[in-house]
Amino acid sequence: MSDQLFEVAFSGQISDGANPDEVKGKVGKMFNADEGKLAQLFSGKRIVIKKNVDLATANKYQTALNRAGAECEVVQTGGDAAVPTAEPSAVTDTPVAAAAAPAAPAEAAAAQEYESSYDGEVAPPPQLDPLGITGDQIDDLAATVAPVGSELQDDYQAPAEPEIDIAGFDIAPVGSELSTAAKEPDPPPPDTSGITMAD
User: Fold this and answer.
1) In terms of pTM, does the model score above 0.85?
2) The pLDDT value given to residue 199
3) 192 lies in a domain?
């Protein structure tokens, strides 16, 4: 139904196997949140990220947060109750006016809406295919080629060569036997006394 409205809420839950620091970084970038706002978002309390939106918009928020590793919930609100909201801006911890129906005190304290700069569209997939352009087609390309043998790593220091004492080593003459095993004596010649040559 077109009059159904939903809210997107987050309680600080992180997807299984996700790195908490990476999730916080992605969520902070999505909502332009500083350390203080991130601490509130991941405090474990239920925070309303977006409220009074249609199901399609709520699902887009949920998809974006899930991709970032944050588990959120989409809950239907009080039907066609209209609540004025501010224009999307950076994250703010100022509570937005509650719905017309009075909320429980504990829920009202935690249900503060965080507006974001997220426009409701899922981020496009990364560019993996070649763009089909060459360097001479880029006007502001400022690139140079380092000389052959240049160090590509900044502040690179070559390790010191070890000092090995080779004073006791020499080179054997050409044709020397390299094996250190004792040479076996040659076998005796075979007995040919019983062998004759026919005329």
Assistant:
1) no
2) 63
3) no
